[in-house]
Specification:
Length: 521
């Protein structure tokens, strides 16, 4: 019923749109609009007023007359009152969920029962974990008809699941098939801006591919006003390249450095992929058969369907696609949806997911605090600046540290004084020992001189007297005495008359030996 009323009330909305849409002249700098408008689903822009005398327009511009303003405003307000967008569509408009994965079960016989959703999801997760597929647990588990629906929240998990081929082939001995998403979500989209219009599309595509190898779905963004530069939107299949491009924030196209930004999604439309009408989704469609997206012919057998390739709108029966931005019904729905979303966001009923802002990381040493921020302050005329000393926590800590240093220095000074005294005592002892050693050296020298004189004056003549032949130059003194005693004993029996004389000689020798022993000691 909602689709029928929506279809029959387009005439008033078209007049209202005609009064609001104006053409903006060709300017070098585009108007500052939200990035969501580049998606084609952000509603009608608010262009500047057209300057008089400027008639340079492009072929893709829409020129509408502005007649019947009061009647169009009344019809639009009446239309909005009659067709208020439900809350579930408003909530879906700001959702940014990643596409889900579908699992179909194919039991071999009737005895095999399909497991519960949570049990099947746990088995799939454990199997992927064994195959070294690094993901977190599924954030969404549910049924879509007879198919199990699994979803994740993280981009890394989504990319890992899409790129891997290590999915299980059966769950609890029941064969399964995996259906991956057939499109890349807009959360992996980037926008490259301010490309000179003279550059060819293929050249731009080649230049982007040289920097980002996994780029797909490159399209030029169509604006409703004239520009001297173009913006291009594309998807990146590799998450590392996607993050790298965002961190670089710019890219080279030919000899031009242009900025690259994240694509911000617009408000999502709620439409049916069965009948291609607005206001409901496929599982709530009441149409008996599906229709072709282009020609809207009923499809009973998809293999036998022959499309005429002539587009037809399911909203207004116009010669364009059902979701085309040229359709007045789509424009009116977007305008009303934007208004409902803005009101819901203002009331805090819903919240739009925003990308994480990159906060620059600085070290504490990069911007040190100023020690004296009033150092360069100039005093006012005729006034004297009185220095103020306010104790702070930092000054107190510095004073404590300086006091501790003074104590340590005083202790070190006392220690050095004691060490100096000990060194002086050691010097005195060393001087005394040196004097004693010098005295001993002198005594030894005198003793040696005395022994030398005794040897020359006493021992040598005795050796000659006893006729002892000195074989060595330095003969031990004890040996000389022994030889003298032995020679004296041998001569006693032969020399009788000279007994008195020999006895006298032996006495002299004994006295000499005693004196020599005393000197040696």
């Amino acid at each position: 019923m909602m689709e029928t009323n929506y279809h029959h009330n387009q005439i008033g909305v078209q007049k209202d749109l005609q009064s609001r849409v104006q053409i903006q002249p060709d300017v070098s700098t585009p108007n500052k609009r939200r990035l969501n408008d580049s998606a084609g689903s952000g509603g009608l822009p608010t262009p500047k007023q057209q300057r008089s005398g400027n008639k340079q327009f492009q072929d893709n511009e829409i020129i509408l007359d502005a007649t019947g303003d009061n009647q169009q405003v009344d019809s639009t307000s009446k239309y909005i009152k009659q067709h208020k967008i439900p809350f579930d569509q408003v909530k879906r408009a700001v959702s940014s969920n990643l596409p889900c994965f579908l699992i179909s079960f194919h039991p071999i016989n009737e005895d095999q029962k399909v497991p519960s959703a949570f049990k099947a999801a746990d088995q799939v997760f454990e199997y992927l974990k064994q195959q070294n597929v690094q993901i977190n647990r599924f954030s969404f588990v549910g049924w879509a008809g007879a198919k199990l629906k699994l979803g994740v929240n993280g981009k890394e998990d989504y990319i890992n699941l899409v790129s891997t081929e290590k999915w299980p082939t059966s769950i609890m001995n029941i064969p399964i098939t995996i259906e991956k998403p057939k499109f890349i979500p807009d959360c992996f989209a980037l926008v490259i801006r301010y490309i000179p219009r003279g550059m060819d599309f293929e050249f731009v595509k080649e230049e982007i591919s040289r920097s980002i190898a996994s780029v797909v779905n490159l399209k030029r963004i169509q604006y409703s006003y004239n520009r001297k530069t173009d913006d291009y939107r594309f998807h990146v299949k590799d998450l590392q390249e996607y993050n790298r491009a965002l961190n670089m924030r710019r890219i080279s196209i030919g000899n031009v450095i242009v900025p690259i930004t994240q694509f911000l999604e617009g408000n999502k439309l709620t439409y049916c992929t069965r009948c291609w009408r607005l206001g409901h989704i496929r599982n709530k469609c009441s149409a008996p058969t599906a229709r072709c997206r282009i020609c809207l012919q009923e499809i009973t057998d998809i293999q036998r369907h022959n499309c005429s390739q002539q587009p037809k709108c399911a909203q207004c029966d116009g010669n364009h696609h059902s979701l085309s931005s040229q359709c007045e019904s789509i424009k009116a729905y977007k305008m009303q949806l934007n208004e409902e979303v803005d009101n819901a966001l203002a009331r805090g009923v819903i919240q739009r997911s925003k990308p994480n802002k990159q906060v620059p990381i600085f070290d504490s040493d990069d911007f040190p605090p100023l020690s004296n921020f009033n150092r360069n302050k100039v005093a006012a005329w005729g006034s004297k600046q009185v220095p103020t000393h306010q104790p702070t926590t930092e000054c107190t800590e510095i004073a404590v540290v300086l006091t501790a240093l003074n104590k340590q220095l005083s202790i070190m000074t006392e220690t050095n004084t004691q060490m100096a005294k000990k060194f002086e005592e050691m010097d005195m002892r060393m001087k005394h020992d040196a004097e004693v050693l010098e005295l001993l050296q002198k005594t030894m020298k005198n003793t040696l001189c005395s022994i030398h004189e005794v040897m020359e004056n006493a021992v040598t003549p005795l050796c000659e007297l006893a006729k002892i032949q000195v074989k060595r130059k330095h003969l031990p003194f004890t040996t000389i005495l022994e030889e003298l005693q032995a020679g004296a004993s041998n001569r006693l029996p032969k020399q009788g008359p000279d007994t008195h004389k020999d006895s006298q000689t032996s006495k002299d020798i004994t006295t000499l030996s005693a004196s020599s022993n005393t000197n040696s000691r």
